[in-house]
Design brief:
With 450 residues, the protein is α+β, with helices and mostly antiparallel strands. It has helices at 2-11, 13-21, 33-50, 57-71, 107-112, 116-131, 134-142, 145-152, 159-170, 174-180, 184-201, 207-218, 224-229, 236-247, 258-269, 278-284, 359-373, 433-446; strands at residues 84-88, 95-98, 102-106, 297-302, 305-310, 313-318, 321-326, 330-332, 338-340, 343-349, 378-387, 390-400, 407-417, 420-429, 448-449. The chain has 2 domains: 18-269, no CATH class; 297-449, Protein Transport Mog1p, Chain A (3-Layer(aba) Sandwich), CATH 3.40.1000. It contains 18 helices and 15 strands. A 7-stranded antiparallel beta sheet has the order 6-7-10-14-13-12-11, with helices on both faces. A 3-stranded mixed beta sheet has the order 1-3-2, with helices on both faces. The protein binds zinc ion (ZN).
Length: 450
């Protein structure tokens, strides 16, 4: 008995380990797979609108054939997932997945892959994000408490109604939400699933990690966006190397097929991708960035509130609203009018309708009114917090910056003040938002509301 048991132990561990390690379970999620598809569909319509797609039949056919072969080996797959693969006509090396199985691969990624196992690795990794439901997992964690309550209190049965309700209240999540919020843990899990898929589809499971390593070294300037959206798991190569033996014995894996080489040749013969619109303008009109905000703060007393702001900023108030901004914080827009690109803007908003309005609805109403003159304004995430014990809503918004060709990040803090909404908008171009974040946080901490 003892001997048998021991023999069993010797044989079993790697399988046990494999089972434990490769237990592919999606994380916390308030949504169901049907809702993943609904969210993905909405966002995919936006992507199709905003991104130049390469609708070249042989390329699209190739990517779909390969994608479907890969997803058929994905763990935790769901028959509801759409599994639609599209090619973005851009030379940036990028790929991304939307919830519910909408996968986009950039032409640059296809051209940079050295063999089919590598591009299959990228697509298998993106499929990993889909089946582990990372998009709605992140959204579930970022959802305001009010909505979590609504979700949990019996609405969960009528999926269609609930989805549209959430869209109405959050104004849709927008593609930014699905594309920017992969955590390191999510990346690691997508790597694990991607490697698993490659192995079972018969591809060299090293292909995925290989591709990520190669492009980072060979094309650092064309992969910036990819790696900012996909934080690199530490020890990626080592982790993948450790996972492979758990999947089963080494086989004679496929690394390449003639179909891949044919598509690559075909792509290289096509006209080059359109140049990104933003770049030339941004280069033509360089605007010196404002000086760094001072750490010394001075008070500003507004209507029903007081706040502190950096002593090298100016305050300009009109109609009860105030702009607090650094030198060069306002830039002239296309129409010759001045728009704020850096700093804070504080104003009161009067919600329409019944007086018993809630914070989420009133904030939504305000954002809707902004959207009339800012068509590209998008809510990225929203969460509840409190300032001096008062409930507040913090909404992160992405918008076009008045600086040509740039995007901006706005953090919008809203709270109820008698019958109006006090809104504090902190704004900076997306690329420099992190540098302003400590100043914005210090301003919020100094806020006194009467
Ligand atoms: Zn990823």
């Amino acid at each position: 008995m003892a001997l048998l048991f021991l023999a069993g132990l010797v044989a079993v561990p790697s399988i046990l380990l494999a089972v434990e390690r490769l237990n592919f379970k999606p994380g916390f999620n308030l949504f169901n797979p049907t809702q993943d598809v609904a969210f993905g569909q909405e966002a995919a319509a936006e992507v199709d609108n905003q991104f130049p797609l390469l609708n070249d039949p042989p390329v699209v056919r190739y990517v779909n054939d390969l994608g479907h072969r890969l997803e058929s080996f994905a763990p935790n797959n769901n028959p509801r997932y759409v599994w639609q693969f599209k090619v973005v006509n851009s030379s940036d090396i990028n790929a991304f997945a939307l919830p519910g199985g909408f996968i986009y691969v950039n032409r640059g990624a296809l051209e940079a892959a050295e063999d089919e196992a590598q591009i299959a690795g990228v697509m298998a990794h993106e499929s990993g994000h889909v089946v582990m439901r990372h998009g709605t997992n992140q959204a579930s964690k970022a959802l305001p408490l009010e909505l979590v309550g609504a979700l949990l209190s019996g609405l969960a049965g009528e999926s269609g109604g609930l989805t549209s309700q959430i869209f109405n209240r959050l104004g849709g999540f927008g593609i930014g939400c699905w594309m920017l919020h992969n955590s390191r843990e999510a990346e690691q899990q997508a790597d694990e699933v991607g490697t698993y898929i490659l192995y079972h589809a018969g591809y060299d499971p090293h292909g995925m990690a290989q591709f990520f390593e190669i492009i980072q070294k060979k094309y650092p300037q064309r992969t910036l966006e990819f790696f900012s959206d996909h934080p690199v798991p530490e020890n990626r190569i080592k982790d993948v190397g450790a996972e492979i033996p758990l999947l089963g014995p080494a086989k004679s894996w496929t690394t390449d097929r003639p179909e891949f080489d044919a598509v690559k040749k075909h792509l290289l013969a096509l006209p080059p991708p359109p140049k990104a619109k933003a770049a030339p303008h941004a280069a033509a009109s360089p605007v010196a960035p404002p000086p760094a905000p001072s750490n010394t703060m001075i008070p500003y007393n507004g209507q029903g509130f007081a706040i502190r702001y950096p002593d090298n900023w100016q305050a300009k108030s009109t109609d009860g609203a105030v702009a607090l901004f650094p030198a060069g914080g306002f830039v002239s827009g296309s129409g010759g009018d001045e728009s704020q690109a850096y700093g804070a803007f504080i104003s009161h908003y009067q919600p329409q309708g019944p007086t018993g309005w809630g914070l989420v609805d009133a904030t939504q109403q305000m954002l809707d009114s902004w959207r009339e003159s800012n068509p590209n304004l998008r809510v990225v995430k929203q969460s509840g917090m409190s300032v001096q014990g008062r409930p507040c809503l913090l909404t992160e918004v992405e918008n076009d910056s008045p600086l040509e060709g740039q995007k901006e990040t706005d953090r919008v803090l809203t709270l109820r003040q008698s019958d109006s909404l006090l809104a504090l908008i902190f704004v900076a171009p997306r690329a420099s938002f992190d540098a302003y974040q400590p100043t914005f946080a210090a301003m919020v901490r100094s806020l006194q509301v009467q």
